[in-house]
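Contributing new records

If you add data, match the layout below exactly. Sequence lines come first and carry their own label; structure lines follow with theirs. Keep one chain per record. Anything else will be rejected by the validation script.
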Amino acid sequence: MNEFSSEWLDLREAADVRARNSEVASTVAARFALRETLTVLDLGAGTGANLRATAPLLPSRQMWTLVDRDANLLGAARAKLARWADSYQSDGEALELEKSGRKIRVTFKSADLARETQNLISTSGAELVTASAFFDLTSEDYIREFAKAVVAASAAFYATLNYNGLQKWTPHRPADNQMTAAFQRHQMRDKGFGPAAGPLAASHLVDQFRINGYLAFEGDSPWRLERADRMLIEELARGFAVAVTEQGGVDEKTIIAWVNVQRSAALVGHTDVFAVPS
C-alpha cells in the first residue's frame, strides 16, 4: 500500500465516497447554499477525488486550485477530471468542466505543503480550504499554524477521512490488537511534516479551530468494507503489515500469519471536520 500512488488512490476512492459523514456534508452544503460562486483550495489533492466528491455540495460556479507535491498525480487528476465531467475544455493550464449543471474551473499547482501551505492560503483567495485523507500525515505544530492561516484568511475549512485509530477486522485474530498498536506507532512517525498527528489529527483540528474562534463540526466517516471490497481489504492488510514491519515490535511469523488471513470485512475509522467563522 503506497498511500501516495495513483493506483492506491483509485482503489480507495469509492470507499472514501461511501464513508463521508452525511451530516457534516449537509452542513457544508447548507453553509454555501445561497452562494453562486466559491473559490476552493484543495491540499494534497492527489488524483482529484476530493473535488469529485465535494463539488456536488457547492455552488453552481466553482474555482478550484488542486495542490500536490507530486506532479504525476496532478497529471492523473487532470485526466480523471476530464473523464468525470459531462464536458470540458482546456484553457492553457486550467480545465473548464461542466458537471451536473455546475461550471468548475480547475487549476493545478505542484508545491511542498510542508513549507508552502501558509503562503498558499494567504495568496489563493480561497473561501474554502479542503483536504481528504491528509491531516493524519501532518504534525500537531503544522495543524496549529495551518488553522491560524485559515482563520487569518476568514476561510471555511473541510477535511474528510482523517484516520482516527479505530480498526476492526473480520474474522478477528488474536494478533489484531498487537498489529494495531504497532501500526498506530508507525502512523505517528514523521511523514515530512514533523512527528505525525496520526489518529489524533481530527481532535487537533477541532481544538485549534475552536481555540481560534471558529465553529467546528465533526462526524465519524468509517470505511465499512465487505466482500465486494475484497481487493481493498487485501491491499489494506498488506499495507498495514508493511508499516508494522517497518515499525518493529512484532515478530515476523506473527505478521506473516496475520496478513495471510482471508478477511470478509474490515472497519477503519475516520473523522470528517468542518469549521467556519462563528
